[in-house]
Amino acid sequence: MVIMKVDSILGAxxxxxxxxxxxxxxSGAPSSQCGSLTPGHDVTPLDNSNSPYxxxxxxxxxxxxxxxxxxxxxxxxxxxxxxxxxxxxxxxVVGSFASLGAQGQFIKCTNxxxxxxxxxxxxxxxxxxxxxxxxxxxxxxxxxxTVVQSYNSYYVKLQSSQVNVLQGDASAEPxAEPxAExxxxxxxEPxAExxxxxxxxxxxxxxxxxxxxxGCEETGNCDFMxxxxxxxxxxxxxxFRKGTGFVGVGVSDDDKMGNxxxxxxxxxxxxxxxxxxxxxxxxxxxxxxxNLLESNVDNGNMYCKFESGAQLSSDSVDLVAALKxxxxxxxxxxxxxxxxxxxxxxxxxADPLALSRVSRVGAGSNLLLKLHGLFxxxxxxxxxxxxxxxxxxFKQTWKGKPVMGADRWFQxxxxxxxxxxxxxxxxxxLVLVYTKGxxxxxxxxxxxxxxxxxxxxxxxxxxxxxxxxxxxxPGTKYxxxxxxxxxxxxxxxxxxxxxxxxxxxxLSAISIPKTGYVVCLVIYIVVYVATHxxxxxxxxxxxxxxxxxxxxxxxxxxxxxxxxxVVEATDQPGGRFRKTVLGIFVLFNEVLVIAIIVLIFYNx
Length: 604
Prior knowledge:
By secondary structure, the protein is of the alpha+beta class. It is 32% helix and 25% strand. Strands 2, 4, 6, 7, 9, 10 and 11 form a seven-stranded mixed beta sheet that branches. Strands 15, 16, 17, 18, 23, 24 and 25 form a seven-stranded antiparallel beta sheet that branches. Residues 1-7, 12-25, 169-194, 549-555 and 562-567 have low confidence and may be disordered.
């Protein structure tokens, strides 16, 4: 009986785990596969000649000690996992990777950082990394890559074209040194903040500058930034970021990614991409006449300078950007390795700008998105959980003390659930205004199903009050059916709502401190489930003492929550215990909701 009562309680926690389901080595390939590069899935690999994936290299000839761009690309379906190595003609693993793709990690097969694999099984459409040839080494190499499409479908040892590593002169050897600086520490160390890059020279006077955090351009203390200046029919761009990785700038007709031109700077140079929706940017060939002028790493911070044309157009993008004559939003982001719809950090201009004029730039606001999170959090963590507890365990408490003609548990349950629906509707409207409609494609949803789960939650939440208005009278034929449907829809909505809130932590658009956010939600679920278990077992114990008391959620109650038949004036035994547990849970719940709200509005 207790199992029947608590099985649905675990739904939220179980659902969250299921939404993070992985196949095989979801956190990356083990070092035991260094030689074969074959996943341990006990399935025959697919024929490489039919592979939709390719291993691309940036050059066919480099010098010893020089960096080489390596990219896994797809012509169709995304992929979940990968493993990359570079081998010479004798099939020896050579060189080392200098940068990680997003959700990537190093493996030591022969030497440190000589192999890369995924660290997360989220769907990917490309992975861009940098490999460095050994100093004073020459020969021919190929990049080998295993790409996992699904547990049963993968391709082993896909090969890039051959790359010749030639002897570099002595003056070129120091270029390999930035590999040692590619440690993550410089991003957070105070001494790195004091480094003044030439990217900041002339900001607001000779050129327009825009970075993060807001206003950092004036002090030269940005975590990442871009500047631009119109020079005739050319635009001079400069990018900067603390630490290594990439920094990108986008030109858009709105403040969202999608249908944009994007320039990405990394240690290996500058490239042009486009974004046609809420998915990973794709490399393009455009009419921008991109010309790299400088790219370097100084004191662990990256800087690049390049030129583009004042007119941007490509077959891959509907937008034709006339930078000299029209106004556009500027989007700036930074990340590490693989490009994605949301990089690690991003910011965007509040209003469209004329790039031909030097101006001080203000950042756009994601306040509506944060308010969306606030209302959804209060609705499902603040209101709905307590409403379920009242309905399930307090029907035999405060007996004979109705409020406005109905039992107290019923009034509390109704108030909390109606409030949850109202707050859900407000939160839904806020996010629709912010996103200007539904713009999520399958790649985005596969990567994070938060929008779809949230939408299903909203639909179920709206069904509940409509169902309640049409409920049959107690004792009628269809009342038991209504009770179970009402119970199922309510619990499904709650479980999905909590899962959607969990998944919101992976959306960097509001830059939630992820560790604190996840810890708070895990603590909530543990305490919520423990509260249910405690009250359920206590209820069974009291029921054994007074068999006529009924705490099952499907008990037959009247329209106003009053039990059919004679209303007893005394509570079921254990009322004080139930009230104490409820009081502790409510206090805990309020403190935790406030803590998560602080995290949502936290601005680093």
